[in-house]
Design brief:
The chain has about 375 residues and is of the alpha+beta class. The protein is about 25% helix and about 25% strand.
């Protein structure tokens, strides 16, 4: 009850009518003396600290101070002296005192602003930003995996001040206005009673502390930008455009918050003869007319090196042959794919006179009976009217 409160001037050890500067000076001195961090486990000190903050809240506000000087507690607390039938303005029966602080936090979490002026605490832990970079690798490296050095620039705690923002050998002062909380709470009179609102402390900017001697290296921020080289293991079977996430390798967090992540986008350089579809490798192999007609043993390039494969006689352009298990390893332990080889007949160029004559003689010996596709295509429509 307000009747049991000590006079606010008495709480701060001041005479009535003290100046703004005297009030501020007295509050700083007492807040530092009775702060909970300076008196761990001391309940009396904790109660005195609350009493000091309440007195400062009224006397540091010119309007509240004027009402208090004129009407005492009744000027700043309508519940003072109100009984069961009294109350605010004599009409609300019971002197209702509404504290919307918790509601403000709830509305702030949904709408990002706040109810009655409440805003998110800037002194709360904040997660660091995630970073994004890319790495170029070869087709073979994508198939079998590799280790790459990745160079990034990220924000890290300052080595000189260990992230405190203070010049080595010094410490920050606990903000006397907010008591180190980073937020200040104010009670405002409304037609429904009193409403409590919270907002970042204007004196410390919501940090809860005041740095008198900022670190020369980081300028008091506690963070610096550094170039780092990280070794990254790229798994076998990774494909172009896929992303590797390294947890906690992004920018450092603030106020004890976790670091962000590092996202690495993989760029696979095109191969000279291979292309990829899932875990399959595709390629085209040129063969001669003689190889196609008579059959032949070919040396087919694969990502493992060359392998021998026999094609049958009568092979046609566009025929596809499968090399089992010569594709891309599947990620996560899945089976390796296959390689598919499409053959095409390469027509010789720059023939000599003798070669042309021999080829013409060979064509005459064959006639049309050995060309099934030609007979079907060029014979289409013959005999039809």
């Amino acid at each position: 009850m307000a009747e049991n409160k000590r006079d606010y001037y008495e709480v701060l050890g001041l005479s009535k009518g003290a100046s703004e500067e005297e009030i501020k000076k007295a509050y700083k001195k007492l807040a530092r003396k009775y702060h909970p961090d300076m008196n761990p486990g001391d309940k009396d000190a904790e109660e005195k600290f609350k009493e000091i903050n309440e007195a400062n809240e009224i006397l540091s506000d010119p309007q509240k101070k004027a009402r208090y000087d004129q009407f005492g507690f009744a000027g700043v607390d309508p519940s003072y002296g109100a009984g069961a039938g009294g109350g605010y303005g004599g009409g609300y029966g019971g002197g209702m005192d509404f504290d919307f602080g918790d509601l403000g936090d709830l509305f702030g979490s949904f709408f990002g602003g706040g109810f009655g002026g409440t805003r998110a605490n800037p002194n709360a832990p904040q997660r660091g930003e995630s970073l994004r970079t890319s790495v170029n690798i070869t087709f073979e490296e994508a198939c079998f995996g590799c280790e790459k050095d990745v160079i990034i620039e990220r924000v890290e705690p300052c080595d000189a001040c260990k992230g405190t923002g203070c010049e080595p050998g010094t410490t920050a002062e606990i903000c006397p206005d907010c008591g180190g909380r980073g937020m200040v709470q104010r009670r405002q009179q409304t037609p429904l009673g009193f409403m409590s609102t919270s907002s970042p402390c204007g004196r410390c900017g919501g940090k809860g502390k005041i740095i008198h001697k900022p670190c020369k290296v980081c300028g008091g921020r506690g963070l610096t930008r550094k170039r780092k080289t990280l070794k990254v293991n790229i798994p076998a079977g990774i494909d172009n455009g896929q992303t590797i996430s390294l947890r906690g390798q992004g920018n450092a967090g603030r106020n004890g918050g976790p670091s962000g992540d590092l996202l690495i986008v993989i760029a696979v350089r095109p191969h000279e003869i291979f292309r990829r579809e899932g875990t399959s490798i595709l390629c085209e192999a040129p063969i001669t007319f003689a190889q196609a007609a008579l059959g032949a043993e070919l040396e087919i390039p694969t990502v493992d090196g060359k392998v021998k494969y026999s094609i049958p006689e009568g092979t046609q352009s566009g025929d596809v042959f499968r090399l089992k298990g010569k594709g891309v390893p599947g990620m996560g332990g899945r089976a390796r794919g296959d390689q598919y080889v499409t053959v095409y007949i390469e027509t010789p160029r720059n023939l000599t006179k003798e070669q042309k004559a021999a080829l013409k003689k060979f064509s005459e010996l064959l006639g049309e009976k050995n060309y099934e596709a030609s007979k079907s295509f060029f014979g289409f429509g013959k005999g039809k009217k």
